[in-house]
Amino acid sequence: WSRGLGDVYKRQQRAKLAMLGWEARVSEREQNGITIFRVRVGPFTKRDDAEQLKQKLDGAGVESTLVRAAR
Fold it and tell me: Quick one: average pLDDT of 12-19?
């Protein structure tokens, strides 16, 4: 991704989640020479809450993965 396309992607993902009622944070990093974008929502105090959101995101066509944060 060029820098400009990455910024467009970040805005699109934030907007998609905002329409679903969630505020998201987007970060980027290099992985094997490719810029990877992480779109994060949470944290959640209950796993069930996170799983419910994942189902909503999946239903809306947003690929998602649950990640346990290190404490």
Answer: 72
Averaged confidence pLDDT in the chain: 78
Sequential DSSP letters for the chain: --HHHHHHHHHHHHHHHHHTT---EEEEEEETTEEEEEEE----SSHHHHHHHHHHHHHTT------PPP-
Structure tokens at 51: 């799983």
Global pTM value: 0.60
| Dihedral sign from CA coordinates of 28, 31, 34, 37 | negative
